[in-house]
Every structure is written in C-alpha cells, then in structure tokens.
Design a protein that fits this description.
Blueprint: H1 3-10, E1 14-18, E2 21-26, H2 33-37, E3 52-56, E4 78-82, H3 93-102, H4 108-112, E5 127-131, E6 151-155, E7 175-179, H5 183-188, H6 197-200, E8 205-209
Parallel strand pairs: 2-3, 3-4, 4-5, 5-6, 6-7, 7-8
Antiparallel strand pairs: 1-2
C-alpha cells in the first residue's frame, strides 16, 4: 500500500484491500469529494481493481462527470450513491454531443471532461443503489447503457416521479426495489394499469414499498 493511499485513509476514506489491491472505496463524510477525485490516486491504474464504490454523505457533491475517473473503473460491480443532497444525476448526453461537435478540432481531454459514468460502466456494473437523492427528478438517459445491471434499488428519492423508457434498455435487470419514494411513483409502477408498468414489466422481481 503506497503512501498516497495511506494519506487518503486519514481523510475519512475507508479503503479495503485484498492481495489484488483495492476492492472497496467508501467516501463517507468527505466534504470535498470532487477535489479528491481530481487527485493522482484516482486517476491511475489502481481504479481498475475497484469492485465496490460507495459515495455517501458528501454535502458538496453536485456532479458525477469526473475527468479521468470512470473510464478506469473497468471492474466496478456495485455503485451506491446515498444521502448526497446536492447531487444531480445529470442528463447531459445531449450536452456531451454538443461539446463534441463544438470541440471536434479541440483537445480530446477537454471533450472527455463532460462524459458521465454510465457508458463506462455498461459492462461491469451489476448493482446500483440510489438512496436519499432529493435532486433526482428523472432517470438520466445515459442509464440505458447499463445493459449488464442486475439489481436496482431506489430509496427515499421523493422527487423521482416516474420510471422512464430508459428502463426498457436494462435488459439484464432482474430485481427492482422502490422503497419510500413518492406515492406518485409507486402508482405509476403498479401492475398492470400503472403508466410506467410497460417500462418495467420485463423485470422478474419488482418490490414496491411505501
């Protein structure tokens, strides 16, 4: 374990190791997560060993579009986003396309800055948990890339009002848990008459809890 990892442990991070290197990173109450993620430790080949990532209780975290981070997470199987009250799961694929057009002759690194995590996680990610994200109002279109996702839990996201057609692209999804969300969301997901039922009816196990 190198010195820079030891320093990160002192910054309220929990990092679990195995003989193969990093297995799990939990950010906990680290208040300046975005600055941390711009550090060299998280822009290196170490990230290719991370299997579980928990980003929780980060009051200043607003975006997940981090340069040089998600493209290294090639083994990430579980992602938990919990109690990040300023976090917006930005639906910026149109913004990304516009950036690419505007910067077609520009620096490739500048273009990459606006890329969201979803397309990078299309192969490895199996489990996604979204918990207490007040600014989550709709599922980002980029989630359609998560074709290997098997379990999705959405808990206490009161402003999420529907399961959009993005869900139809999650063809490997076996379990959907909706817990303590809005009454409107639960009503839209009820079988067989809910407005969003056609978007989720392919999922084997669906749990709705008020």
């Amino acid at each position: 374990m190198t010195l820079d990892i030891l320093i990160l442990c002192l910054w309220n991070l929990s990092i679990a190791f195995s003989s193969k290197d990093i297995l799990c990173i939990e950010f906990g109450n680290y208040r300046d997560t975005e600055s941390l993620l711009r550090g060299k430790v998280f822009q290196s080949d170490r990230l290719c060993f991370v299997r579980s990532l928990d980003i929780s209780f980060c009051p200043k975290l607003k975006r997940l579009s981090w340069e040089g981070f998600w493209d290294h997470c090639t083994a990430l199987e579980t992602l938990c986003l919990m109690n990040n009250h300023e976090l917006e799961l930005e639906d910026d694929e149109e913004e990304e396309e516009e950036n690419n057009n505007n910067n077609r002759h520009g620096d490739e690194e500048e273009i990459r800055k606006e890329v969201t995590p979803w397309r990078f996680l299309s192969h490895p990610l199996r489990n996604l948990e979204l918990d207490d994200l007040p600014k989550l109002k709709k599922l980002p279109n980029g989630m359609r890339h998560l074709t290997s996702l098997q379990s999705l839990e959405i808990r206490d996201c009161k402003n999420l009002k529907s399961m959009s057609e993005v869900m139809r692209h999650l063809t490997s999804l076996q379990q959907l848990s909706l817990i303590s969300n809005s009454a409107e969301l639960n009503a839209r997901c009820k079988e067989p008459s809910g407005a969003d039922w056609p978007n989720i009816q392919h999922i084997e196990l669906i749990s709705l809890q008020f």
